[in-house]
């Protein structure tokens, strides 16, 4: 499942590429035919992301809610558009470009009130202006659940996935099994600001990049796949050379250094 940086990048790109245009909307697969009819010919105003959710704002106060889930994928096309590839739930055609959406877990037309209800179920998003670390602190400090599990809970912090949770805890020297209520306020504040920084880098480069360029000896744009991560799926710790441990936590495999991240 894509992490929050990718959804914010999609929101930014789709706003820039399709915003202000009267768009042709269809559902080649047919499963979104009714929703496509409601949106066809509407003008796209903007696209926003909240965690792993997208909301497209159209003229006539119409909203489109998309959650990619495990299998959802966007494909960008030039004009004229090619024949649909696979089960295309949604096709959006503009003046110069078009995009297809395949396999999302959610693709639905909502009212403003319904979108607000979706957002109320989500935690604070580090990439949003309205992201509130105080709300994050309240939810983490009251929980006996391991911080590694809390970071995957989208009602605590929205947008963090399996890679970012392992990497941010490694950077801060926090063991994934430590209960949320055992963390100090300063640690939660650092967690929040570090996630903001990492996710912003992810949006800029459209990929997860953890190390600083000075530590790798090359700019972020030239880092290869292995160089972009420090602990996730790595064999040894880059700091102490200990073997990285991995185990299931929150139904996903987490990675940590047993010496640099003491329990």
Automatic annotation (TrEMBL):
Ranges for domain Formamidopyrimidine-DNA glycosylase catalytic: 2-94
Name listed for the protein in its UniProt record: DNA-(apurinic or apyrimidinic site) lyase
Organism per entry: Adhaeretor mobilis
EC number from the UniProt entry: 4.2.99.18
Protein family membership: Belongs to the FPG family.
Organism ancestry: Bacteria, Pseudomonadati, Planctomycetota, Planctomycetia, Pirellulales
Top EC class for this record: lyase
CDD domains: AcNei1_N
Keyword DNA-binding on entry: yes
Ranges of residues in domain FPG-type: 230-262
Record keywords, A-Z: DNA damage, DNA repair, DNA-binding, Endonuclease, Glycosidase, Hydrolase, Lyase, Metal-binding, Multifunctional enzyme, Nuclease, Zinc, Zinc-finger
Pfam families for the chain: Fapy_DNA_glyco, H2TH
One of the GO biological process terms: base-excision repair
Chain segments annotated as coiled-coil in the UniProt record: none
